[in-house]
Amino acid sequence: MKTNTATLETKKTNLVAGLTIEGLMDAFDATDSNNSPEIPTVRGWIMDEMEKRNPEAFNAWLSGDATIPARNYFL
Asked: Nearest-5° angle of CA 2, CA 47, CA 20?
């Protein structure tokens, strides 16, 4: 049986949405040393959830010093 795109999108959303904010930060940090071609997509999913949960911290992180990790803004 073929899995459709909507089903995959729902599974992805549920997986990322089920993480705590600490879990999101850990997942994001874990992508730092991975050069797999899927990593930009995974980071996008995580970043979408970060922005959804705390848009102020997300915007401060994006406009802040690039050397300061995201977790410093979110935790």
From this structure: 90
